Amino acid sequence: MSDVSSDDECPDLIPVPVRPEVNDEPACKIPVTIITGFLGAGKTTLLNYILTEQHEKKIAVILNEFGAGSAVEQSMSIGQSGELYEEWLELRNGCLCCSVKDNGVQAIENLMKKRGKFDYILLETTGLADPGPIASIFWLDDELGSEIYLDGIITVIDAKFGLQHIKEEKPEGILNEAVR
């Protein structure tokens, strides 16, 4: 007999300890997409389109705008067949990025208490918000990070005036918000 085994022979099996099940994080966490852009760029229009499309997803929305809210924003809380979107949360206490830990995290934590009623979270920022500090909540809050993950940041740009805003010259010392 030779020590070399032939291709027809089955090799001896070696017992291997079973690894604990590895969590596929995106599969067990709720994805969050931040929608940002200047006032009037079309964020709410995009959000309305997403909510009214037939995609079999249950989407929770966190809307952060100053003021009482426009008729378009208010109409987004009612579906085409008249049902209310139960997961509709509006933050009226100012800019989300100005008080991320207080308002933003609290709104998402409150929403996560209803986990199972939605598959996805869309967070629309005010037109004045910088999405950077908002996105940082996904790394700064360990408890929240165990339930959600940042799926992406969508920046909506006004196609008609976007280039004009980018090229706009500002006085010395004034930051052009369109290019930061």
UniProtKB/TrEMBL annotation:
Q: Which Pfam families match?
A: cobW (PF02492)
Domain of life of the organism in this record?
Answer: Eukaryota
Give the CobW/HypB/UreG nucleotide-binding domain ranges. Answer: 31-171
PANTHER family per record: COBW-RELATED (PTHR13748), ZINC-REGULATED GTPASE METALLOPROTEIN ACTIVATOR 1A-RELATED (PTHR13748:SF31)
What protein am I looking at? CobW/HypB/UreG nucleotide-binding domain-containing protein
Q: Which organism is it from?
A: Strongylocentrotus purpuratus
